[in-house]
Amino acid sequence: MNADVRPVLKLRDDTVGVLAAMRGVFARDLKVAFRQRQDLLNPLLFFVMVVTLFPLGVSPEVSFLREAGAGILWVAALLSVLLSLDHLFRHDFDDGTLEQLVLQPQPLFLLVLAKTMAHWVLTGLPLVILTPVLGVMVHLDGNSIGVLCLTLLIGTPVLSLIGSIGAALTLGLRSAGVLLSLLIIPLYIPVLIFGTGTVAAAAEGAQVGAYVALMGAFLVLALTLAPFASAAALRISLSNG
Amino acid sequence: MWQFFHKLGSPKWFFGIATRLMPWLLAGGVLLLMAGIVWGLAFAPKDYLQGNSYRIIFIHVPTAFIAQSIYIMMAVAAVVTLVWRMKLADVFVKAVAPVGLVLTFLALFTGAVWGKPTWGTWWIWDARLTSMLILLFLYGGVIALDRAINDEKSAARAVAILVLVGVVNIPIIKYSVEWWNTLHQPATFKLTEKPSMPADMWVPLLLSVLGLYLLFGWLACLRMQTEILFREQRTRWVKDYVMAGRG
């Protein structure tokens, strides 16, 4: 990969503040991603295709789709985030950028947080934006679609954050992809349960405030703890090579 | 106290202690477990609602109980691995993870066997069952990650992080019954309250839980010894030990 596709990080300086460094990492990840647009598109295509499989494979009945639609969309979103996680650190690991990141004077966990946020903006957010269209296709009503988007908006950052731990742990291993899924899917289950539970409660006309608050709690927990874990895991994976 | 702590870090010292401890653990474990199970299966009174089918509790509860506590022990060992880099802690994690996997599977299996006559189904997507299943996946992930990393030190620390991340799941298992409150009956033992069943039922249950704990201790010592011998195979004392055993 040549240098002009993947811009070099220019942070090697004590005078760069923590926030500026985070902004730098974030902006660079976005820039790299937009120079390789296909990588951006793939998880979205995957998302749409997985959702398509359900009406074809199970039943195109409106009653079934309305019942299962939110769950299908959530599972599809979860899987496509999972699929995209491999990219989170892989390229930076291969070309040595990650080592430079570890050597920065700024705390690694904040830089990892910036990378994870960039990952969410590039995969989670587009999924949320795409959800209303697919929601209409699986015959969800307007209210459910709104709640579904809200849960995905809170839930997908959690997926990215937890996923970053798995991606960091499996970095540089053989068959990292399958292993990553094995490690991460169990940790995704509570998020999935509450995400779909919220939509189900909304469909029954119940108040969803408590559910949304719980998902927010998941987000805060992941936001505060996950970057530490992935930073520690990154250091291990790098010392491994 | 610190000296004890340092000694505990020495695989050789642990090896000796374990050798002396193991016969007691094995004997105590077998005795208690036999007593608990025979008492439970043959002499404890019938349940007024579930009849004889409830008797599987004397196997189901100990396996489920210990399957969960092994994970907590692993989490403690993981902290020790990460903070003090103590060799023995990661030997422990590596040695007991498969035991935890098997016990979790047994808990799920006996639960299914119990569920069939009482709930009329082998499996139900109840919160408690689902979180036990997640525990099974977590054990599987820990073992898979450990196998995937060749370097011993990296593997130990990576696994430690994974275990700590997974331990967030344990409170969810513990309180899921109260949160979702579905089919599964609430926990059998609580530290703070008197058991709600007659003494003829809970005493054998307690005996079999303790028995299985001791047996687990024995198995953990055995597996840790094996792992220690493997890791320290180049050291003097292991060579001496092996040669002495042969001679």
Question: In words, what does this structure look like?
Answer:
The complex is a heterodimer of chains A (241) and B (247). Chain A has 241 residues and is mainly α. Chain A has one domain (13-240). Chain A contains nine helices and no strands. In chain A, α1 crosses α6 (108-137). The longest helix of chain A is centred in the C-terminal third of the chain and has 32 residues, at 209-240. Chain A is elongated. Chain A starts with 17 loop residues before the first helix and ends with a helix. In chain A, 43% of the residues are buried. The model of chain A has no long low-confidence stretch (mean pLDDT 88). Chain B is mostly helical. Chain B has one domain (22-183, 199-241). In chain B, α3 (57-84) runs parallel beside α8, α4 packs antiparallel against α5 (127-148) and α5 (127-148) runs antiparallel to α7. Chain B starts with a helix and ends with a helix.
List the SSEs and their pairings.
The complex is a heterodimer of chains A (241) and B (247).
Chain A: H1 18-35, H2 37-57, H3 62-84, H4 86-95, H5 97-103, H6 108-137, H7 142-169, H8 176-203, H9 209-240
Chain B: H1 2-8, H2 11-43, H3 57-84, H4 87-119, H5 127-148, H6 152-166, H7 169-180, H8 199-231, H9 236-246
Membrane topology (chain B): Multi-pass membrane protein
Main location (chain B): membrane
Protein name (chain B): Heme exporter protein C
